[in-house]
Structures are given as structure tokens and as C-alpha cells.
Write a structure and sequence with these properties.
It is built from six helices and five strands, in the order βαβαβαβαβαα. It has a five-stranded parallel sheet, sandwiched between helices. GO terms for molecular function: intramolecular oxidoreductase activity, interconverting aldoses and ketoses.
Length: about 150
């Protein structure tokens, strides 16, 4: 059974988001497209928020976000309580961010990665479980402590 995955992008990430949506749907994942829906100029924080809210509300298991570089949309996502978003442009980062950080949101830059690499990154991120090692769980708990202190 596939995952429920929210997708979000700004205008710079629109085409890659559409490709990723098709790729994930073919694999049996349930995708919820939070926009944007064309290449008209929009603000990435709006779409990061829409997709990440579905994760924090339990309506989606994870989210994939795309903007031109992945930087802005990942910054916006990480301002949301309960979100652990990683910007990944290679397979090792995609695997380790799941194993070590139990990330629930993946960000990529459409100007940085092409479709083939983006598909491989998403696949690696989806298939990799959290290691659940005590040292990694403790570190995630410390991140939650920071979140609770500063995200009011």
C-alpha cells in the first residue's frame, strides 16, 4: 500500500512537481496536489504551508516540496511545528535524512536536479525507514524541545 503524499511547489518548481506527482501516482501512492497549478508567479511559503498542514493534521503521511532551488520552500516548511523538512539533491542525503532525522518532508530544487535524479531521490527517501536508534531518537527529541521553546 502506498503512502499519502502532499505535493507543493511555486512557479519555479511547477513542472518538476507535476513530474513527481505522475511518478508517485504510478507507484501507487495517493498524491494530494496543494498547488501551484501553473507557472504564474506565486509565493513558495503559501504552498509549503498547504502541503505541510496536511502532514501535521495526519491527512498525509509525508510531503514533497519543490521551488527553484529548494531553499526557500524548505525554510518555510521548517517553520511549521512538527515538520522536519530536508533539502536533498543527492541519494545519500535522501537516505540519511530518513534514517537519522525521520524527515516527513522532502524539498528539492527544480533548477538543481533533473527529472531522473528527482525521481531517484524521492524513491530513496520514500523507501528508507527511520533507524529508530536511540542516538537519533534523542537528537530528534532535542529538535522538538527547540521547536517547543521557540515556535509558539
Amino acid at each position: 500500500m502506498g503512502l499519502r503524499i502532499a505535493l507543493g511547489s511555486d512557479h519555479g518548481g511547477f513542472r518538476l512537481k507535476e513530474f513527481i506527482k505522475e511518478h508517485l501516482t504510478k507507484q501507487g501512492h495517493e498524491c494530494t496536489d496543494c498547488g501551484t497549478y501553473d507557472e504564474s508567479s506565486v509565493d513558495y511559503p503559501d504552498y509549503a504551508l498547504k502541503a505541510c498542514q496536511l502532514v501535521t493534521e495526519g491527512k498525509c503521511d509525508r510531503a514533497v516540496l519543490v521551488c527553484s532551488t529548494g531553499i526557500g520552500i524548505s525554510i518555510a516548511a521548517n517553520k511549521i511545528r512538527g515538520i522536519r523538512c530536508a533539502l536533498c539533491h543527492d541519494l545519500l542525503s535522501a537516505r540519511l535524512t530518513r534514517e537519522h532525522n525521520n524527515t516527513n518532508v522532502l524539498a528539492m530544487g527544480a533548477f538543481i536536479v533533473g527529472e531522473k535524479l528527482a525521481a531517484a531521490i524521492v524513491d530513496e527517501w520514500i523507501k528508507t525507514p527511520f533507524s529508530n536508534e536511540e542516538r537519533h531518537a534523542n537528537r530528534i527529541n532535542k529538535v522538538h524541545d527547540i521547536e517547543n521553546r521557540y515556535l509558539k
